[in-house]
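Researcher: Predict the fold of Anoctamin.
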Amino acid sequence: LLKERRKVYEANLEKVGLELEIEDKSESEDGKTSFVKIHAPWEVLATYADVLKIKVPFKVNDIPDNSEMPMNWLSTPFRLPEHIMHPEPDFFTAPFNKSKSDFFLIDNKDTFFPPSTRNRIVYYILSRCSYFRDECGDKDKKGIKRLLNNSTYTAAFPLHDSRYWKRSRDANCESERFSLYKHWAGFLSFFKEQPLNLVRKYYGEKIGIYFAWLGFYTEMLLFAAIVGTICFIYGFLTYDDNEWSKEICSEAVGGKIVMCPLCDKKCGYWKLNSTCNSSWQSHLFDNVGTVFFAIFMGIWVTLFLEFWKRRQARLEYEWDLVDFEEEQQQLQLRPEYETKCTNRKMNRITQEMEPYLPITSKFVFHVVTVVSVLKISLIIACIIGVIAYRLAVYAAFASIMKDSPTTHLQVVGPFITPQLATSVTASCINFVIIMILNLMYERVAVWITDMEIPKTHLEYENKLTVKMFLFQFVNYYSSCFYVAFFKGKFVGYPGDYAYMFGSKLRNEECDPGGCLIELTTQLVIVMTGKQVWVLQLNQPSKAQFIRGHPESLYSRWEQDHDLQGFGQLGLFYEYLEMVIQFGFITLFVASFPLAPLMALINNIIEVRVDAWKLTTQFRRPVAAKAHSIGAWQEILNGMAVLSVVTNAFIVAFTSDMIPRLVYMYAYQPEGEMNMKGYINNSLSSAGNLHLLLLLCRYRDYRYPPGHEKEYSHTMQFWHILAAKLAFIIIMEHVVFLVKFFVAWMIPDVPSDVRARVKRERYLVQEYLHNYEVEKLKVQLSQNTHDETW
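Model: Structure tokens for Anoctamin follow.
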């Protein structure tokens, strides 16, 4: 049956006009694999370029390039050679028309269509060619994907043009893979610009757009990293001005304050100065610079997204993608959709019969809803499990460390506290759970999207993107939301503590240093662990071991076959990784100003690692067109808005910035603008007045025992709450106003690009008109000559 399918499929490919060359099994290295080499002659390329309306050059661009920057010589060390950056001249383009081929600038038919266009055309034919005989009548049996799924073929891929470590021996071959490896994939080129035009020419627009976005994102991170580092340095330089930490660490204040037990049975009373180190650490991230940086990042996000739109608009024009979306929707139907369609209906626009699916969306919607609820419930269950772990283990750590057995450890010993040990171990466990759940989510999201049978490749990717991101959003960020907005907020007070779901586990408290340092710890562990995990997954393929084999014994197609398959969703996971990182540096950046710096270092490596994988480890992917980053753009916009809200709440409710300012301006007993007495003011008392030895302090603003409003909130608590809410409202309005003003001021499409698009459309009409007129003159002159004869 497999032989019959192959025979029919290959015969049908030849009918279309493709040229096939079959390599015998005995000629392959393993003696078991047979290769079918496919070549598309000019007639086939021209025919399908007309069908796909591929844009090709018809006139050299005559608009002068005025993009020269002042002091341009400063960028010389970061530039690549001109023939690498701009492998092709700049042309005005128009959709190809086979009947008017002499209208276009065709110098050499062998090189007129770039490699990415050629392999896209061939794949378009392969994905729609049937493998049934005409007399069978089973028209659903078509497409290379189905043949791969039923094991008729084991792989289908375009060939690389050369080995990556040396040029091709063919003088006519441009050896673009070698050029990309030499100038792009090497880590020593990390400070160089990316050859995006060459990437687009060799791999296609979709991969080119990804690397353009990643490079632009990395460049913009440089500014955020500089400002974040300055804020961190500010916290370090104002270390000695930290009055409240001095009070916590001093024997006169912190050494005399006895704190209430943090758990019911195994925890004892403890001295406030035992949290001395964590309070100093907290000051590095919880200072005035934090507020400034949170506001700055809200504006930075807007600038990043607005300038990316401009960069994307320029690439759309330069790469002939201006009208691509309409083309995608009309022509690029997924073969899976076409084979599932049992009905036909009239398209009101084209007036042609087209396939459509019967209404099954209600069933699919119910399945998606049920699966989504189950997945989110599983995440919530895991979070509750980690919280329960934190509550139970804290008591154990507190009991073990009661006599400070860790102080004998050099360097790290004095910093290890029950709070830190609990936070670090819980964060590590949470990270492992995140990675395990990721593996399950990917498969389920793909399965649900396949059930929906999207009509186009673009629609398929957008649906999958939204599902995967929503699940990953809850998976990655839920623990950070817990630490930032829930931990220490619903604790109760001595004698009336709150317990988790009625259990014997008391809700967690923040130590006097605040919960911000715990949120910082959580971010560092998840961000660092995620990158280590990704690096571990990037294992070398067999390609690392073929450099010693001569090409005469180990052919190019065999070399490529032994590489890893890139897959249709190869870029999807790269985007997902970067967008999750984008969430960490925007949603919670107020707690960790060094997050952009960590992301910058990671991305500098990421660009070159991704380039190295693509050029050395993967088969050449089938070229695909994309005019933008797709649904990721809307996701980034949504996260940009949410980040303003989350950072405002972090500064207000997780940081101690607002309580300190309220104390300094309204409750400082001496009326001075300093923080003396803040620690004593921020702690409430609890215990029995008749047994003074049992009096202890806890973090809250409540009246002491014996007062007529015993354990009720004081007026200072309500003043602080009002200040927090006022800060949130003011910060959000200021940042949003600035965001909207910046977005209004910066046009999405640069003026020169808009002018070029208009000129190109004008020239297409003018040149086509002149072409038709000249053609008509020639016909008339011939007719006149015939009549005269």
